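Example complex used in Figure S2.
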Amino acid sequence: MVSFTPDAYDEVIDHAREGKPYEICGVLGGRHDGDEARVEFVRRVENVSETPRVNYLMEPEDQLAAIDDVEERGDVVGFYHSHPEGPRQPSETDADRANWPRHSYVIVSLGRDEPFVGSWRWTGEAFDDEEVVVDSD
Amino acid sequence: MPTVRIPAVLSETGGSRNVEVDGDTVLAAVHAYTEEYGSELEDNVLGNGEVKEYINVYVNGKDVRDIDGVDTQVGDGDEIRIIPAASGG
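Predicted assembly (226 residues):
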């Protein structure tokens, strides 16, 4: 399970909406302890993919700076990115490039309906669907 | 000597670690690490003598792809960091 503070949850959705029609991305910060993960804040990272409508690639030095920022305040819980036109699930490209075992990969899917925030834990070999919970205020 | 800083996700011990190694380039430093600790890190980071596509290597916070790649010079006090790139579709 991964839980979000309300502010962090709103932030990933706001970021995804602002970035549409392009994919956006960032680092999730908070507490990461085994199966339990709590996102308390997020750090946006520039997407430098050459095909940003359908891919993301974190700008390398910005990614490093973001990780350092997060680790000053807590743990790297994982990463988030958007699917401006869906789908809700990780794409084949997401699975091919995932390389942070035990971390959460959050996808904000925008489509015709309300935004959907899903999360998958990368085992090192596959994505395991995990429950997303928003803490009460 | 430069220091190689490895995040937990690439560490065979499961924890992050900082290791001082010999070497005056990134490549030499990685090879020195391999001599001491085995090839797992090198296998994860290098392919065909270059940094693998979805791995980032930094010297003092600068992406080595923007310097001289694996031939980037390093010396006393320099920090080599290795971070898996976050990317997808």
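Chain B is about 20% helix and 30% strand. The domain at 3-84 of chain B is CATH 3.10.20.30 (Ubiquitin-like (UB roll)).
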